[in-house]
Amino acid sequence: MATPVPPYEPPYYAVIFTSVRHDDDHEAYAAAAKRMLALATEQPGFLGVDSARGADGLGITVSYWRDRASIEAWRTHAAHLPIQETGRRRWYDMFSVHIAQVERSYRYPPPAP
């Protein structure tokens, strides 16, 4: 069973990447996504990620970061840049990115004391 990332102590940031993906090249996309997740987890300021994709190709990935500088460092990371370009050329019909500061965070059920 998948579980959402735990809440973090605010403030922190959420990068919401919403996309519509082509229905082809699944293996290359999955391999690139796996590499990028592994690389992101090594980046200073990375807190976690939640991701889901529907059968219609619509996907939402929310990555959580400690601060805006960490987000910018990830956006411009030398290994991330070519994957971004490949996404534009091969994998996405469209995408949008939203960056939001998280002011409150909680979960249900609450963690045991």
TrEMBL record:
For this entry, the protein name equals Antibiotic biosynthesis monooxygenase
Please report the organism this UniProt entry assigns to the protein.
Natronosporangium hydrolyticum
- One Pfam family from the UniProt entry? ABM
Stretches that traverse the bilayer: none
The source's domain of life comes to Bacteria
Give a yes or no for keyword Oxidoreductase in this entry.
yes
> Does the record carry Oxidoreductase as a key word?
yes
Q: Where is each ABM domain found?
A: 12-99
UniProt KW keywords = Monooxygenase, Oxidoreductase
As one GO molecular function, the record gives: monooxygenase activity
